[in-house]
Structures are given as C-alpha cells and as structure tokens.
Specification:
The complex is a heterodimer of chains A (975) and B (84). Chain A is built from 24 helices and 52 strands. With 975 residues, chain A is an alpha+beta fold. Among the domains of chain A are: 118 residues, 2Fe-2S iron-sulphur cluster binding domain, sarcosine oxidase, alpha subunit, N-terminal domain (Ubiquitin-like (UB roll), Roll); 187 residues, 3-Layer(bba) Sandwich (FAD/NAD(P)-binding domain); 137 residues, 2-Layer Sandwich (Gyrase A, domain 2); 89 residues, Alpha-Beta Plaits, CATH 3.30.70; 130 residues, Beta Barrel (Elongation Factor Tu (Ef-tu), domain 3). In chain A, β51 and β52 form a beta hairpin. The chains are: A alpha+beta (975), B mainly beta (84). The complex binds zinc ion.
Chain lengths: 975, 84
C-alpha cells in the first residue's frame, strides 16, 4: 500500500511493481524508484540513527549528497554498508537494513546518548579519552567504535568482481542536467567523440525534478528527447550510473560505473563496478549545485528535507512526502517547492527569512520569519514559528522543506589545486580562475542558476572547448535567483549543521571559543565535513556561521577545498582484478612442476617461487630436509635451480670495456672460455650487486646478477649504455627467462655431469678447470652452456639449457644421481663458504667491508663508484667488516640482527661493535654459524665477544673466526 | 598521466620508472663526482628528467615535465645525444 504515492506523473513505471524489504518489513515500489523514494511512498520516514547521538533520521536529500539515509544493502559476504538510500536504485527483491542502532530502529537503546549531548560535544573524544594511554586500545577505542559508527563491513572477502578500464574521448561531459545535455549535443552534433557521464540512472539532472517546461514541453520530456538524440549518435557514449570522482594529472578523470548494484540477479560475468580512467583532453563540468540547509532547532527530524529534494520526490518519483508542509526558505527557489507541493495536494505554509520576499500567492506566508524549533519523536509533527516581531507560535506540520540557497558542486575544479572564489550576489563559492587543464565549467556548477543560462552555458562552453558552433538552446525559465545568505536561526536549540557527524551550531561556537577559528581547525575539532558525505550539505553553512562568530566575511574566514573522491569509491574498484593470486604476477622456473612432484615447499623471492627444500619420507621439520640436502650435497652431489639469477647477454665490440666501467674489477682481460666473479658498485661507492661474467666470445659476455637485483642491475646497465656511453658499441638483452640453469655441486658433481653430457665431452680439470665456461651438448642433443662456478665451495658446475629443456634437465640430474636441494640449503652452504649475499650487500657496505678490497685493486681504468668509494668515511679503519662467528657453546644459537659487544659491556648504541648479518645451522660443523660485520674485522680473529639481542632475549658468547668455514684453501672447488 | 614514448606512443605512467634529473647523463671526470652524485637543481617549473619505459620498449627517455603542474611537454630517446 503506497499511501504517499501520487496517482499520476513522475518517472516511475506503475506497471512494474517491485517488492523489496527494509528491516525485514516487505514493501512495494516501482521501477524508477530509489530505495528512499519507495520507502517514502510507503509512508516510511525513519531510515537511520545518527552517528553519535543515535537520533532518528530520514532522508535530507534526494541525491548523492545524502548525510542521513545510509543503509546496508544485501546480506552475508555481499552486505554493502553505508549505501545512500537516495541513490540506491530499487530492484525486485532488494533487501536493506538500517544501521547504527542497538535494538530496533524505532527504539534504539543507544538513543540515551542524545540525553548526554551536553557531554558529547565538539572535542569530546580529545578531552575525555586522554589518559591513561594504555586505556585507548583496550577500553576507549572499542567503546567509541561500538557507540558511534556507521555500517559494518561483512568481515568476509568481497565475492564480487571489479574491473578497471580506460576510455578515450574528445570531450567528457560530467553531469546530464540542462548544461550537460546541451554540451553533449553541441559536441555530438559536431561529430566529436563524447562521453557523457551521469551519476544518476536517468539522464536529465534537475530537469527530471521540476514542473516547468523546456522548449514548450515538460522539462523531463525535453531531457528524455535530448538523451534519445545523443543515444542515436555513434560518436556519443552515454554512461549512466557513472560518477566522475576525481581529476588527475594529464587530463585523466576517475569515474566509477556501478554496473550491477541495480540488478537483483546480475548476469554472470558482469562486474559489480568498473573503475574507468577516462582520458579527456577537454571536459565540461556540469555537475549542478547542492542545496544548503538552514540550521534551526531540532532540524534533523525525519520529515525535514531540502526543498529541492521535496520537488524531486513530488515531480520525479510521484511521492508526496507530507500533507501539511512548511517551506522554510531564504531564496526564491523555495517558493517553487511550495507551488509544486500545493499542486500535489499539500497544504503549505511559506516561511521566508527575507522580509518582503515573494509575491502573495495564496499561501499562509510569514516574511522575515523563521522556523525556530520542531517536535515529533520519529517524524516531525509540529514546528515553532517565529514572526517578524519576535512572537512565536506552534503549527502542526508533517513536512518541513528547507532552502538556504544553493552551492555550486564545484568539487572537481579543486582536485588539481584550484581555489573557489566567493560570489556575494549569489552567496556562494564558484570555481576560481585556475581550473584543471582542459576543464570548462557550465551551468549551476559555475553559479548560473536559471535553466536558460544552464542550457546556453552548456552549449557555449562545449563550443568554445572544441571550436565548434553551439547547439541552439530551447526556451526555458530565466528568472532571477534571489537569495540572501542565511545560515541559522539565532537562539535555536540543538541546530544541526552536519547531520552525518552530529555536529551542531553549538559545537562550532565551542570550537570558536576554544580557539579553533581557522576553517580547517574547526572542521577537524568538530569532525564537521568528514565521513561518507564529506559535508556536501554542511561545509558552507558552517563556514558562514564561523564568519558570523569571528566578525569576518566568508572569504576572510576561509575557503572550501575538495580532494578526490567526490563520492565514496570502494577500494575493491581501484584494485579491479588485481587481488588474491592476481595481486601480482608469479614467475615459475621451468622445473617448478618437477619440484612440486618431488616434495618441494616454495618460497616467494620477489615474483619468483623457488623451491625452499624438498621433503623426503619421514622428515618432520624443514631443518631435517635442509640438513640432509647439505650433507648429501657435500657428501655426493646435489643440484639446485638457479634459473632466477638475472642473466644479461652483453654483445658488441666494446663489451669488455663497457663491463670494465660497470664493475669494480676488470673483464676485458678475461680469456674467452673463462668466468670471473664481479662486484658492481653504485656511483656513491657502495656495493650494488655481485655476480659473474662469462666470456663466451671475443665480443660476447654473459653476466649474471642476484635474483633480487636482476631488474635493477639490468636497468642500471641500460642506463650506462644509453645515457652515459651511447658511443660504445654494446648491446644488452635480458635472457633470464630464456635459460633454465642449475647448479650441480658436490664431490661427485663431475661423475653426475659425465652421465648427462654427450659422451666424449672432456670434463677433466685440465680441459675444463675451475672458472671455465663453454658450450656443450647434453645427451639427446640438447644444446647447453657449462660454467664451472661454485657458490657452495664444492666442485660445482652451472648448466644452462634453453628454458624448454629445464624440466627435462631436472629429471636427468636426479636420474644421474644428484639430490635436489632448495634455497635454504643453498643459503646454508654459502654461509659455510663465507659468500656475501643479500644480507651482506645491504646497501651500506663497501667492497672493503666485505673483505673484497683486492678485487680490481690494481685496475687502472675508471669505473662507476671508484671516486666515491675513496671517500674518507668509507675508508675509516673502524668500519665494521665481514667476519665469521661461532658460538663458544656449540649448542647455542646465533641470531641474525643481533648486536656484538665486548664481554661485559652494557648494551647501548655506543658500545655496539657491529651486527650479525646471516646465520645458519651448519650440518658440516654441527653448530650454528654466522657472518657478521665487526669493527676491526678479521684483526679480531680469535676474540671472544658477546652476541646480544634485546628483542629476542639472546645473550650468547661467540668467537670471531674466518668467514670461510669450509675448505679455506679452495681445494674442493678446484678439485 | 601519459608519457609520449618515441617508440610506443603515449603510454600510461605506470609503465615507466623514474630515475631523476637528466643531468645524470653528464657524468663528470673524476674530481667532480661528489656534486654529480649528491647535488641537484630543484626548479619549480620545467624539469628535464630520466624515465625508462620499462613496461614497454625498455628505452631510457629524457622527459620534460613541469614539476608544479605535472604537464609533460615531450620525451626524447636518451641515447640520441641531442636529447642530452
Ligand atoms: Zn616505449
């Protein structure tokens, strides 16, 4: 029973009834309704409870500026909180629930807060919940969160899909009211590519909410015909339900399209929302204006609405929001509401704050009067009216329509730093001279309030933006928009300014008394203008009141500025498809599946997944597997996938000279068929990365990088080639993914390899010694590269094959008798051998710190980092340098990150001698071992120190030893 | 925000990585490296800077940009020396 639905008119389809529910109650609305209009049609005024005081609230507006009527739509994982009922399109089966209540909406148990309002004013949180600090987390915050809040998230993963997409056009038109439609027609008829974005689900803007005519026909009909013409133009794209929420550099506009929120059962594959990045060299902002409320006593009861919203409900939705209406206005526009309400059958009293305003139109009229107060528990029932002489009387009223004038919706003009300017004649901020590049503003958004001015302005701005001729504007009303600034009724009790944050006039007065006079301070102290509506209806009146209180003009008091987004945008929409496992790409080595079948656990290293260890049989913990892999490798042969190391192919006549300039050591002297370890510095002298270079030909090197720095090293080398020395004849190609590469290590590595290479390939030390490299053919005719490199200290080879043979090579190595080992065992063996890795190359260490000063020490040519490496500070004798550590008690555990102290020294920053960088349990030595940076370095070999870790409560006696724990002479790797 | 890559045309910012002042291309002889590494002009306005089209062709570019408005005036290939 839609008791408050008008029998005719409006843009609702009475032949399409839609059942829906609110707080469990089932109602019926029509196609074309919003949730708010459908509830109003059913006589429901109460739609929520306020944020702080839990006061009963109904809709204030009929659009996206709504502060009050926030509901949760849907249930379970799909529950969507803080949905504006004034925007939510009705569909069959829509299920909505009110928020921020304890108990039922009609009897909210937290409404007791309203009686405590004296104590809950501005700055309440700052003053009350101050001490002790420990109470915050446990007591205050949960209390505040429970008592004051908006809707709750489901707590479950969002089941919906979101899309991110790009769109391109010559002209983006933002808003489809009279200005936007004329702009789109002007550009569309001229053949330009146009995108018309409209937040609403119907094009036309205010034209759908007014009773006047445009071009000799009802305004909504003119709008529908204009929309139909645009829809027929192939160069025009109409995007309804699309809110342009932000302006970004380079003429990119962020727009959120709601694809499925109006559908009860969206078709499969349709995203819920699309985040559009619209590339528009020119844009027309035709976003209209937002009506301002007037602050008077108890002005927040359900049934008190903005006057323009009342016209929307009457004219667009065919809903009569009240039968005994009081229109309280400070501008001529309010009188339109009075006329439309009377035409719809309501009894209307007009209270105009301006003495002598308006003609006698047969309403009961109080000029120079005010609504002072209201009564009514869950809906307004009475108002107290003040007459010009000061006398007051009470009148019954079930609807109060309020208009304090209109403020241009100029938010998007501020997103790139534009500052609005105050226009005294319309008592409003309008866009300033600095607009986002390419943006023009038309219609009410720039302060042109008459319909004819909007129509003409839209056409003219589009014409000037594109250099085409303007579409001819139809006839329309062109009356002057009389308005006086009128923010509040003096002497009123509990007059709300920001209904979403429950900020009253008194709160602003209190902020003023307490010294928060700058507009920005006042907003933060009172919380005015925060939360989902961002003070769309509250900011200007609050500024007006602050100006009154400080005796300044509004421009002197402050300005308003706006940052993106114009309207709430779910984070999920920004993420689009980049969530879960699609958050970033995953790189798999060619042996990934083989490793998985063979018991590997994987670890993320950058984007790569690498085998961490291989679980065998009854191994219970990771240490069992890692220890076994180390023992089996050092006792026989093991292999590890090292495909993830960066591989850079360097070719050209100047390759050797080029590498000489990039590395601390020399490569131009390296014979063909040999490899060399290399250390790369940053220009500031700090070690950047290490790796090897293999000379495959006179003008051909293959350089490897660490896994972690592969991208940065290639970028750096390309920078050197293109930006520093473009005259050198050298070219670089990353071949990381083209080659699968394995390290084969252990005393039996040669035997294993002999089973894999084609028979006859000479692996003897004489022909293929330590640091040799060259091409080989594997059994089955697979082309390969062999490098005799060792990271583990064992006799070792690296074997590279084209990536497609990677899986097969892993199988072949295992079949030939090598055990697979993962990156943990790799790490253990490199610590045992004292090889620096990421923990040592931490962006603070020099070659000397790492004990690598001898590398390239005799080099005569320049290289990147050479001069800065010689800085005094980097040469200081007391710089911590690399050492090895062993616990005095072999069962004690070393910890990476721990500090080193003299025995007995108090643990303080000043007494720290250095830090532990890497630790491992060495199965070979049967104890924990570590690499550390220690002041004095290797000169302290044999000293006993204290390893102290306050964070983890460790205090262990350690001995300084050589960082090379295994085979210090290198006999094994040369064997 | 888009950068007009000489090879790929106008492409979105997220495909590029930023390095810094294009003055980095003028690596000095030894003796002046400290200034080269640590000192930069900080103009409020037009700035020539190095970007790499890493998510595209991989070229290092000299991009001229107004650092106060982020307006991009053009991009040239760094290794074409006239860009330096
Ligand atoms: Zn490119």
């Amino acid at each position: 029973m839609q008791a408050d639905r008008l029998s005719g008119g409006g843009l609702v389809d009475r032949s399409a009834p839609l059942p829906f529910s609110f707080d469990g109650e089932v109602y019926e609305g029509f196609e074309g309704d919003t949730l708010a209009s459908a509830l109003l049609a059913n006589g429901v005024r109460l739609m929520g409870r306020s944020f702080k005081y839990h006061r009963p609230r109904g809709p204030l507006s009929a659009g996206p500026e709504e502060p009050n009527a926030l509901v949760t739509v849907g249930g379970g994982a799909k529950a969507d909180p803080n949905v504006r009922a004034t925007v939510q399109e009705l569909y069959a089966g829509l299920s909505a629930a009110s928020q921020n209540r304890v108990g039922s909406l009609r009897f909210d148990l937290m409404a007791v807060n309203d009686l405590l309002h004296r104590f809950l004013g501005a700055g309440f949180y700052y003053k009350t919940f101050m001490w002790p600090a420990a109470f915050w987390e446990k007591l205050y915050e949960p209390l505040i969160r429970r008592a004051a809040g908006l809707g709750a998230l489901s707590g479950q993963p969002d089941p919906d899909e979101y899309e991110v997409a790009h769109a391109h056009c010559d002209l983006l038109v933002i808003g489809s009211g009279p200005a936007g439609l004329m702009a789109a027609l002007t550009a569309g008829r001229a053949g330009k590519r146009v995108i018309l974005a409209e937040e609403d689900f119907v094009l036309g803007g205010r034209l759908n909410a007014e009773s006047f005519e445009v071009g000799g026909k009802p305004a909504a009909l003119w709008a529908a015909e204009a929309a139909a013409e645009l829809a027929a133009l192939p160069n025009v794209r109409l995007m309804r339900r699309t809110a342009v929420f932000g302006v970004y550099d380079g003429a990119v506009y962020g727009a959120l399209e709601r694809n499925a929120d109006h559908l009860g059962a969206p078709p499969p594959g349709l995203p819920r929302m699309t985040m559009w990045k619209v590339h528009a060299p020119r844009a027309i902002l035709a976003s209209g204006a937002i009506e301002r409320p007037i602050a008077f006593g108890n002005n927040d009861r359900p049934g008190i609405m903005l006057a323009g919203a009342v016209r929307s409900y009457v004219n667009r939705y065919a809903v009569l929001p009240g039968r005994r209406a009081v229109v309280f206005t400070a501008c001529d526009d309010g009188w339109r509401t009075a006329r439309d309400l009377r035409a719809a059958g309501a009894e209307v009293t007009v209270v105009d704050a301006r003495p002598g305003a308006g003609r006698d139109e047969g309403f009961r009229t109080i000029r120079g009067g005010a609504v002072v107060d209201t009564a009514g528990r869950l809906r307004v029932s009475h108002v107290t009216l003040r007459h010009p002489g000061g006398t007051e009387d009470s009148a019954s009223a079930d609807l109060v329509a309020v208009s304090g004038g209109w403020s241009p919706a100029l938010h998007l003009t501020c997103h790139l730093g534009g500052k609005p300017v105050w226009r005294e004649d319309i008592a409003a901020f309008v866009p300033g001279a600095t607009l986002p590049p390419g943006m023009h503003v038309a219609g009410a958004a720039r302060g042109d309030y008459t319909t004819l001015a909007c129509l003409r302005g839209g056409a003219a701005e589009a014409a000037s933006a594109l250099g085409v001729s303007p579409a001819e504007a139809p006839e329309a009303e062109d009356g002057a928009a009389g308005v006086s600034p009128f923010w509040r009724v003096k002497g009123a009790k509990r007059a709300f300014l920001d209904q979403q944050n429950d900020v009253t006039v008194k709160d602003v007065e209190l902020a003023h008394r307490e010294g928060f006079r700058a507009a920005e301070h006042m907003k933060r102290y009172t919380t005015l203008g925060m939360a989902t509506d961002q003070g769309k209806t509250a900011n200007i009146p609050a500024l007006g009141i602050m100006a009154e209180l400080t005796g300044r003009t509004i421009p002197e008091t402050g300005t308003t500025t706006f940052r993106p987004p114009w309207t709430p945008v779910p984070i999920a929409a920004f993420a689009g498809r980049h969530k879960g496992k699609h958050f970033h790409a995953t790189r798999l080595t060619p042996s990934h599946d083989w490793a998985k079948e063979n018991g590997a656990d994987f670890v993320e290293t950058g984007l790569w997944l690498r085998a961490q260890w291989f679980r065998r049989g009854a191994e219970k913990g990771w240490r069992d597997s890692v220890d076994r892999e180390v023992v089996e490798t050092r006792g026989g042969a093991g292999f590890c996938d090292v495909t993830t190391l960066g591989k850079i192919d360097v070719k050209g006549r100047d390759s050797g000279a080029f590498l000489d300039r990039l590395y601390r050591n020399t490569f131009s002297t390296l014979p063909v068929g040999r490899c060399r370890y290399g250390l790369m510095l940053r220009e500031d002298g700090i070690v950047f990365d290490d790796g090897t270079a293999a000379r495959l030909g006179e003008h051909h090197f293959l350089v490897t990088t660490t896994t972690a720095k592969a991208v940065q090293v290639f970028r750096h080398m390309e920078f050197a080639r293109a930006c520093l020395w473009p005259e050198m004849e050298v070219s670089l190609v990353s071949v990381t993914e083209q080659w699968a590469q394995y390290s084969l290590a252990g005393p039996k590595a040669r035997e294993v390899l002999a089973r894999i290479v084609e028979p006859g390939f000479d692996l003897s030390n004489e022909v293929f010694p330590y640091m040799a490299c060259g091409a080989a053919t594997l059994r089955g005719g697979v082309p390969a590269r062999l490098f005799r490199l060792s990271f583990s200290g064992e006799l070792a080879y690296e074997i590279a094959v084209p990536a497609r043979y990677g899986h097969g090579l892993a199988e072949a190595l295992a079949a030939a008798g090598a055990v697979p080992y993962g990156v943990e065992a790799l790490g253990v063996m490199r610590v045992e051998k004292g090889h620096p890795a990421g923990n040592e190359l931490d962006g603070r260490t020099t070659a000397a710190d790492l004990g690598l000063a001898a590398l390239g020490a005799k080099k005569s040519t320049g290289f990147i980092g050479r001069e800065m490496e010689r800085r005094e500070g980097l040469q200081a004798a007391d710089r911590p340098a690399l050492v090895g550590l062993r616990p005095v008690d072999p069962s004690a555990k070393l910890l990476a990150g721990a500090h080193l102290l003299e025995p007995g020294a108090a643990p303080k920053t000043e007494t720290s001698l250095g830090w532990v960088s890497s630790v491992a349990f060495s199965p070979s030595l049967g104890s924990s071992i570590g690499l550390a940076f220690l002041k004095g370095g290797m000169a302290r070999t044999g000293e006993r120190l204290r390893m102290w870790d306050g964070l983890r409560g460790a205090d262990v006696a350690v001995e300084v030893v050589s960082p090379v724990f295994i085979d210090p002479e290198g006999a094994q790797l040369r064997g | 925000m888009r950068i007009p890559c000489p090879f790929c045309g106008p492409r979105m910012l997220e495909e590029f990585v930023y390095l810094g002042d294009a003055a980095l291309m003028r690596r000095p002889a030894e003796g002046a490296t400290c200034d080269y590494v640590f000192l930069r002009d900080n103009p409020a306005g037009r700035h020539r800077e190095l970007w790499r089209h890493e998510g595209g062709c991989g070229a290092w570019l000299v991009v001229e940009r107004d650092v106060t408005t982020h307006e991009i005036f053009g991009a040239a290939l760094a290794e074409a020396r006239d860009a330096g």
